[in-house]
Write a structure and sequence with these properties.
The complex is a heterodimer of chains A (287) and B (308). Chain A has 12 helices and no strands. With 287 residues, chain A is an all-alpha fold. Chain A has a single domain, classed as Orthogonal Bundle (MetI-like fold), CATH 1.10.3720.10. The two termini of chain A are 30 Å apart. By secondary structure, chain B is mostly helical. Chain B has 2 domains: 70 residues, no CATH class; 196 residues, MetI-like fold. In chain B, helix 9 runs antiparallel to helix 11. The chains are: A mainly alpha (287), B mainly alpha (308). The interface between A and B is large, with 39 and 44 residues.
Chain lengths: 287, 308
């Protein structure tokens, strides 16, 4: 059997294990639907997320005029606002996870591959950073440097790479004595190229799993910041700030709280579930 | 043992120093100070205020002054609350965080542990599937969503419990905040205990215990329970830290006068000493929690040796 065929075979095997339960399919389709809606609704809706409409304040969800989710305290269409909120949340989730995966993989793979004193030093830094209270620190960062969206990305990404670094280091320790690493070393490959070309590609499986689990964590973190009023700036909204707005109006208009809360929970639930299934599929020994 | 504890406590000092330096640098190197306001003050008054809080000195002098005060356990005066020291604010707010956090962790351990054991006792059946689905839900719904929903249902609609406030910490005011804070940890602990229990129940010594004729309850209590709960102990460190910083949100929603709320207002008002003091406090508590967890771990599992 050719190498390509083996590759395709193991992919199919992986996909079968991953897709074994109907809940996986449901989660995938739900996410796809939400992503499609966030892309399409703001384009086709006659409303935008920022223009107040003083004649339509606090309209309950209705079919009339297509305002399925009703309107908020300024008469803005909640459907469009929630869709923009999902866009922001998903974007933050992806970008910040990417940042944290890149830092975490490089850090962990370097520590694990080099070993010895460099390893001790790099991992000692991770240990120290684990004791830094991060939610307070990111809050301080956001207050001090203004609430720029880019900063939210960078800040969250920079604090959530510790777990990935630890896992990647452990995995690197396991593979660094394999024959193909020895072979490459015998051919004169130096450490940076070795880490880039031979170590990191062989870590991809576990990295993908933890990246999938980082995305929902990061989305929750951003939502938390926005909920405290430290994330995205008005009039733009993220799901966190929509929940905060809804919470202040919940006595008379509970739909303003329930709709964004539901959507946020749904996105995180789907991502958590997919990450879990991915882990089970890639690591069949556990179950 | 005492030498180990001493060494761990000593090794916390550089970490705390790093946190202090980081917070100090962040606060002092960014534009805007605690006494900038729209209304411009008479220059003499401005000078007097800055001299009072040593803000007119060069930054490195302020830094050294802060560190030497810190060494004596003095976190300095608050800029925002006049005639109040940061130590006093902590003494006022911390008991509230400890009460809410303690209740939340207790609830999460008891309820989460029970659910996990229940689910593991019949894996694959609906007694397993339903709680596990619910726990996945519990992990995905953030605290700041649960908290307003709890208020909406139990305070505004049913009028069973108060929507917030503290009033000296009566249990009625404690219940909703603790519950909201506990939920994600309860869910995670349930999953953790289930996975661990299934692993333990499949091991050889449990089979031996069964084979010698021990009843299922005796097997569980005498042989399976302790190893099952081991992963729980190592999860307790991150969980305690999470509860501690998570209470920032809870205090905001329920209007509790804990340190989390002081932290947010302090950060917004550039109250340098308050923010630095509270950040250090969070760091110290996290380090302390991790130390306690490690000690517990060694005590429960004699195979873990501390001295190395």
């Amino acid at each position: 059997m050719s190498a390509a065929a083996t590759m395709a075979g193991s992919w199919r095997q992986f996909w079968q294990r991953f897709n074994a339960r109907r809940s996986t399919t449901v989660a995938l389709w739900t996410l796809a639907l939400i992503v499609a809606a966030t892309l399409l609704v703001p384009v086709f809706s006659p409303y935008d997320y920022s223009t107040p409409a003083w004649t339509r304040i606090f309209t309950a969800p209705t079919w009339r005029g297509g305002q399925l989710f009703g309107t908020d305290a300024l008469g803005r269409d909640l459907l469009v606002r929630v869709m923009w909120g999902c866009r922001i949340s998903l974007l933050v989730g992806l970008v910040a996870s990417l940042v944290s995966v890149v830092i975490g993989v490089l850090w962990g793979a370097t520590a694990g591959y080099l070993g010895g004193r460099s390893d001790a030093l790099l991992m000692r830094a991770v240990d120290v950073l684990y004791s830094v209270p991060f939610i307070p620190l990111v809050i301080v960062l956001n207050v001090l440097f203004g609430r720029h969206l880019l900063l939210v990305f960078a800040g969250i990404g920079a604090v959530s790479w510790l777990d990935i670094a630890r896992i990647v280091r452990g995995q690197t320790l396991a593979i660094r004595n394999r024959e193909y690493i020895d072979a490459a070393r015998a051919l004169g490959v130096r450490a940076p190229a070795m880490i880039r070309r031979h170590v990191i590609p062989n870590l991809l499986g576990i990295v993908i799993v933890y990246a999938t689990l980082t995305v929902p964590a990061v989305i929750l973190f951003e939502a938390l910041l926005s909920f405290l009023g430290l994330g995205v700036q008005a009039p733009l909204a993220s799901l966190g700030s929509l929940v905060a707005e809804g919470a202040s109006e919940m006595q008379a208009n509970p739909y303003l709280l329930i709709i964004p809360a539901l959507l946020l929970s749904l996105i995180v639930l789907c991502l958590n579930h997919l990450g879990d299934r991915l882990r089970d599929a890639l690591d069949p020994h556990e179950h | 043992m005492p030498r180990y504890v001493l060494r761990r406590l000593l090794s916390a000092i550089p970490t705390l120093l790093l946190i202090a330096t980081l917070a100090f640098a962040l606060l002092h190197l960014t534009p805007g100070g605690p006494f900038d306001s729209e209304r411009s003050l008479v220059p003499q008054i401005q000078h007097a205020i800055e001299a009072r809080y040593h803000l007119d000195e060069p930054v490195w002098r302020q830094y050294l002054r802060y560190l030497s005060d810190l060494a004596r356990g003095d976190l300095g005066p608050s800029f925002q609350y006049r005639d109040t020291s940061v130590n006093q604010i902590i003494a006022l707010g911390l008991p509230i965080d400890l009460a809410v956090g303690g209740c939340a962790i207790g609830f999460a351990l008891l309820v989460g542990g029970a659910i996990g054991l229940l689910a593991a006792s019949r894996p694959g059946t609906c007694r397993d599937r339903v709680p596990m689905t619910l726990s996945m839900l519990g992990m995905s719904v953030p605290t700041f969503v649960v908290a307003p929903l709890l208020i909406l249902v139990f305070a505004m609609r049913l009028h069973w419990l108060p929507a917030g406030d503290w009033v000296g910490g009566s249990w009625r005011h404690l219940l909703l905040p603790a519950l909201a804070l506990a939920l994600p940890y309860t869910a995670f602990i349930a999953r953790l205990v289930r996975a661990s229990a299934l692993e333990v129940m499949g091991s050889a010594y449990i089979r031996t215990a069964r084979a010698k004729g021990l009843g299922p309850m005796a097997v569980l209590l005498r042989h399976a329970l302790r190893p099952t709960l081991m992963p729980l102990v190592s999860y307790l460190g991150p969980a305690l830290a999470g509860v501690l910083t998570g209470s920032i949100v809870i205090e905001q929603v329920f209007g509790l006068p804990g340190i989390g709320r002081f932290f947010i207002t302090g950060a917004l008002n550039r109250d340098y000493t308050l923010v630095m003091g509270l950040t250090l406090l969070y760091g110290a508590l996290i380090i302390l929690c991790n130390l306690l967890v490690d000690l517990c771990y060694a005590w429960l599992d004699p195979r873990v040796r501390l001295a190395q």
